[in-house]
Amino acid sequence: MVWVRSEYAPELAVLSTWLSVLIPWNVFHGSVGGGSILLVRFPLLEIQYAFGVPLARATSLRDPLSAYQLQAGQSVAGAYAAWLVGAGVLLVAVAVSVHYYREEARAESWSVDPVRLLGSLLTATGVVFGVASVLLTGGLFGVDLGVGGGLAGTSIPLGVPFYLAFGVLLLRADRVE
After folding, report:
1. Rounded CA gap, 155 and 68, in Å?
2. Angle of CA points 57, 46, 19, to nearest 5°
3. What is the 3-state secondary structure (H, E, C) of the chain?
4. End-to-end Cα separation, the chain, in angstroms
5. Partners of 144 in the beta sheet?
6. What are residue 154's DSSP bridge partners?
7. pLDDT of 112-137, one tens digit each?
8. pTM for the full model?
9. Nearest-5° Cα angle at 27, 23 to 29
10. Which pLDDT band, with edges at 50, 70 and 90, does 55 fall under?
11. How far apart, in whole angstroms, are the C-alpha atoms of residue 80 and residue 82?
12. Contact 80, 86 (CB under 8 A)
């Protein structure tokens, strides 16, 4: 079954890669220090909203590297390391997509199909961010899987299904070889 026709695959590859940067890979809500915290984690940025938490700024922003450094030595450090890997994979995908957008004819002459390459990179991004989501709280959607985690709350891997769907769509695109 073909989901994407060959003539639309390059545009879908570029657009889905760029959209992936804008979709949060994880949204977390939990109780901390007598208040609550909401973390919205985009691939390249974390926005933290703290409500009623003493000694915490109401709103703060972090990139994946500074978030990882903040959590170094904590039980969730592995999740933040996975986030760094996922962000790196997605940045590679963005670089490939920008080149593909600007130099389509040159990219089409590569030994690897750029649509399939972007599909593979987005699929890998989804897998890595899925692992990071599980490591954050030890579960997903409030279901404890008994692995990792140090934060009690609900972790929703919002972007993970999108990254995986985009990747699979691109990998299954009808491409003229």
Report:
1. 18
2. 145
3. CCCCCHHHHHHHHHHHHHHHHHCCCEEEEEEECCEEEEEEEECCEEEEEEECCCCCCCEEEECHHHHHHHHCCCCCHHHHHHHHHHHHHHHHHHHHHHHHHHCHHHHHCCCCCHHHHHHHHHHHHHHHHHHHHHHHHCEECCEECCCCCCCCEEEECCCHHHHHHHHHHHHCCCCCC
4. 17
5. 139
6. 29
7. 999 999 999 999 999 999 999 888 87
8. 0.87
9. 160
10. low
11. 5
12. no
CATH code assigned to 6-171: 1.20.140
| Segment 62-72, tens digit of pLDDT | 999 998 898 88
Say if residue 141's pLDDT is above 60.
no
Written as one letter, the residue type at 85 is V
Angle, helices 114-137/77-102, rounded to nearest 10 degrees: 160
Contact 68, 84 (CB under 8 A): yes
Average pLDDT, the chain: 86
Residues in the chain: 177
- Residue type (1 letter), 106: R
Q: Torsion-angle region of residue 146: left (phi > 0), alpha (psi -120 to 50) or beta? A: left
Q: How confident is the model at residue 57 (pLDDT cuts 50, 70, 90)?
A: confident
Q: Say if residue 160's pLDDT is above 90.
A: yes
* Max avg pLDDT among 5-19, 21-35, 86-100: 86-100
